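Write out structure tokens for TetR family transcriptional regulator.
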Amino acid sequence: MPSTRDRLIDAAFALFEERGFDETTVDDVAARAEVGRTTFFRAFRSKEDVIFPDHDAMLGAVSARLATATAATVEVAVTEAAHVVLAHYLAEGTRAQQRYRLTRSVPALRSREVASLLQYQQVFRTFLHGWTGGTARADLRAELLANAVVTAHNHVLRRWLRETITAGEAEAEFATSMDEVLRIFADPAPSVGGTAVVVLRSDQPVESLLPALREVVARPET
């Protein structure tokens, strides 16, 4: 049997789709769920809170996954932490897609969604700053990577929310997107000191060229 909280959520989403968000009151939701107004406010602070998932719980799960990272598993931790959020929405199924339609049509809900997005970026940014070494360039890379992780996640999530792809395809696209993000931000291969030698064709015997090559290699850099 559904809990009171679940009944309130079901009632709210049904009414929002039937009448519109602004036209639906808390009393309407409580009446549809067959509970009192007081019961509604025990479960939610406002009708907006009925719509959004428990972001505090998800942020906690993301932070917990990142906290287990070691120097060798930072990239895995970032990918799996981002996947925590994707998996939650996919598990919600049509409810998540209903929410998406609502947030597209109600500016106040859209603003709240953007605010929650910034919270996820902050969690990743804080985590990545801890691994950058503290230089200005490294901190910039952490900032850019945090934004890229969230952007890649949301790109795939929105495609599923719009029903452009299936849940299985979303999983596959997420893996590909995260690989691309990490590839872009991978540290470049360290430069190796030494002398570059350009090889040209010559009619002279190799033995006659070796003294000149040795002289070039031994010459100090200027």
